[in-house]
Design brief:
With 732 residues, the chain is mainly beta. The protein is built from 5 helices and 60 strands.
Length: 732
């Protein structure tokens, strides 16, 4: 018995010894190495990359590439990293994490400091600019300065054609010192054009090429064949302003760039001391480029003062839509925007897989914030902030409707970001743009104070080459969108959420939209805009209030099978266009949001937030009358809770519209929505207590504050003309 046990023990011991020997003699690659942490600093050097001897970011990247098989973290210590070229990460950098060191707020900057300011006799200050630097933007102590600009020039004076423009004499440009440093900034509907003057001859100005040709009609490359928004079209109404001439430098906070003298001149704001101020101009175009890498994380890093150089070249800025431009002197005939050019961005991800940008900060940029393109998949941009950008904040995807599989954008996420004051310079840009994407999630972002549309998904304008695409299963959910389509920026034909193209499975849900195109003078600017071939899209459980035009717009016959259901809004809209589209169970024409709507709106956005409750409307139960009626435009149409229907009197002296409240009520405000087609202008708001005069055109809406006890509210046209109103609300 003992012999047997001892024999078994001997056999087990031998097996154990053999197993241990095998482990000890196994190749070293079989052992999983530990994670490696490298450090970078603004003043880094060498190759150690330790916490006490940090490297530059490029040095840390190169050292990380030698750590084969390890998870590598590169931690950026506090401070500003001044880049003359972008930090580039490629396939060899896959699997790395780039993050702020604990407690640090590192910033990758493309800025060039402007120093050596001296005071001029006229109160301006000037400084020499280093070679190779062209200041298109200027930031003084972190506050954006404005390129010196003049007044608008109407088309009757500045008459544009395919070859140039008149108006040099009337504007005085023919006597400017350096007119070829100046640019014309033109806004036509949803488009922007920024072209530099090439020459002046008498009253005629010409502009650099190909900028001007690409801004005019006739190239067969500027967009859909039906488009009429080129500089030489009937939609052109004049130059918004000319900019960057010393003759225009007359307001504090303005600057001008002199290309010949290589100087920048600035008129300080009150309290600014140019001897002590930090003045920065964006110089380096891109700050971080991730090209062909996978499983890369970027977290807690700031990006500032990146440049966008194209608009300052002869290419200029021939804006087509959403911040994309037409470039090149020649190119293929195309009506679907397949060959448009995106703006330069601080961060660009090309062909990435599982790339994550999180908790980052984008500010003071001359171009866009971030781009995910060229077949980037399963990647995300989350919990980041974007503020004070010349162009749009985020661009996802591309403009080819049927890309090869490797170039298709799929399952990307843009979520829990805050975007404010993007499109400062290029006001046709949008907050978040997506081209031909599938499975995209745009979720719980907060977007406010934007000049044009906030979120735009889809492309192609129903052109033949774009009618079949990879667009599908996109989700725009839980976003908070306030104060967009800003009227002062003169951008038209957009919406807080804008779509194009057939997108089976796409859902727009749980979004809070308030004040899109609010205060406009025309019917323009929507809440949710299902434009150009938008099809198979569900719009549900959104809260949409104070919209300049329609809360949901789906006008095109070729947009099919869209559904709008269970939404809350304070106005109504015409039925959805297209075959098989339906509107069901929507609560429209509200003058108070119910608890369920308030809850949906409060949860929307990156952090949730307050909801602007609607104000009770005393006029709803009032009795409307008017001095006369033009056709079917009866007085009651101003009280039908629909800003798309209109009253209209005849053109007569003292024309009026009135609401009788049925009893004396305490009135604090009257909200007057203009007809827009038949403009009501120069009128009185008359109550039992007195009269308030309103000069100029009524808006959508004009708010008249009162403190009146009255039974009637009457709107009386001064002199002759019509009173034409879309809606009148009377608030207690």
């Amino acid at each position: 018995m003992n012999r047997t046990v001892n024999a078994l023990r001997g056999t087990a011991a031998a097996a154990t010894a053999a197993f241990l020997a095998a482990l000890l003699t196994a190749p070293a690659a079989q052992a999983a190495p530990g994670a490696r942490t490298l450090y970078a600093a603004p003043d880094g050097r060498g190759t150690s990359c330790t916490v006490s001897r940090p490297c530059t970011p490029e040095g840390a990247r190169d050292r990380a590439r030698t750590e084969k098989g390890r998870d590598v973290r590169v931690l950026l210590k506090d401070g500003t990293y001044r880049l003359d070229a972008p930090l580039k990460l490629g396939p060899d950098d896959s699997g790395t994490t780039w993050a702020a060191a604990p407690g640090a707020r590192p910033v990758l900057s493309g800025g060039q400091d402007i120093t050596g300011w001296h005071r001029n006799a006229d109160g301006t200050w000037s400084a020499a600019v280093p070679a190779g630097v062209t200041p298109r933007q200027l930031f003084v102590d972190g506050q954006r300065a404005t390129r010196a600009r003049g007044e608008a020039c109407p088309a009757s004076t500045c008459d544009a054609s395919a070859t140039g423009m008149t108006g040099a004499t009337a504007t005085g440009i023919d006597h400017w010192q350096r007119p070829t440093d100046a640019e014309a900034v033109i806004r036509v509907r949803w488009r922007n054009y920024h072209c530099r003057i090439a020459g002046v001859s008498g009253d005629t100005m010409t502009f650099v090429q190909p900028c001007w040709t690409n801004s005019a009609s006739g190239t067969d490359r500027t967009g859909p064949a039906w488009d009429s928004t080129a500089v030489d079209s009937t939609r052109y109404s004049g130059v918004a302003f000319f900019e960057n001439a010393p003759e225009l430098l007359d307001q504090p906070g303005e600057f001008v760039w002199d290309s010949k003298g290589r100087t920048v001149t600035y008129l300080p704001r009150k309290g600014e001391d140019m001897r002590r101020a930090r003045t920065v101009t964006p110089h380096t175009e891109q700050l971080l480029v991730v090209d062909g890498a996978h499983d890369v994380t970027v977290s807690g890093i700031g990006f500032a003062y990146a440049a966008y150089r194209q608009p300052g070249t002869d290419e200029g800025y021939a804006g087509m839509q959403a911040g994309l431009t037409l470039t090149g002197a020649t190119g293929p005939v195309d009506h679907a925007g397949r060959y448009y050019t995106k703006p330069s961005a601080a961060v660009t991800v090309r062909g990435g897989r599982r790339v994550r940008v999180d908790s980052s900060r984008f500010s003071h940029l001359g171009g866009a914030g971030a781009i995910l393109e060229a077949g980037t998949k399963d990647s995300s941009l989350t919990r980041s902030s974007f503020t004070d950008l010349s162009s749009g904040a985020v661009y996802v995807g591309d403009t080819e409707p049927m890309p090869e599989a490797s170039l298709a954008g799929e399952r990307n996420t843009v979520a829990y970001n805050t975007i404010s004051r993007s499109g400062v310079e290029y006001t046709d840009s949008v907050g978040i743009w997506a081209g031909y994407e599938a499975g995209l999630s745009v979720d719980h972002n907060s977007l406010d104070h934007l000049p044009y549309s906030a979120i735009s998904v889809g492309w192609g304008w129903n052109q033949p080459e774009a009618q079949k695409s990879v667009l599908r299963d996109n989700k725009v959910t839980g976003n908070r969108i306030t104060d967009v389509m800003e009227v002062a920026q003169q951008q038209h034909d957009g919406g807080a959420i804008y779509t194009q193209g057939a997108q089976p499975g796409t859902v727009l849900s749980g979004n809070y939209i308030n004040r899109s195109a609010y205060g406009n003078t025309e019917r323009d600017g929507n809440g949710i805009y299902l434009d150009e071939q938008s099809s198979h899209i569900t719009v549900e459980r959104n809260v949409i209030t104070r919209i300049g035009y329609k809360w949901v717009s789906n006008w095109a016959d070729y947009g099919i099978r869209n559904t709008a259901r269970g939404n809350w809004t304070d106005t109504a809209a015409p039925a959805l266009g297209g075959t098989g589209s339906v509107m069901t169970d929507n609560l429209t024409g509200l003058d108070r949001l119910p608890a369920q709507a308030l809850a949906v709106a409060a949860r929307a956005g990156a952090h949730g937030g307050p909801v602007e409750q609607l104000r009770t409307d005393l006029a709803r139960t009032g009795t409307p009358t008017q001095s006369s009626t033009d056709g079917a435009a009866t007085a009651a149409l101003a009280l039908d809770a629909d800003t798309n229907t209109d009253t209209r009197t005849l053109s007569e002296a003292g024309a009026w519209w009135q609401a009788d409240l049925g009893a004396v009520r305490h009135v604090r405000q009257v909200e007057i929505w203009n007809d827009a087609a038949t403009t009501t202008a120069d009128f009185d708001v008359v109550t039992d207590d007195g009269t308030v005069h309103v000069s100029g055109k009524a808006l959508r809406p004009t708010l008249v504050k009162l403190d009146s006890r009255t039974r009637t509210v009457r709107i009386v046209r001064s002199g002759t003309g019509r009173v034409a109103l879309a809606q009148v609300l009377i608030h207690p």
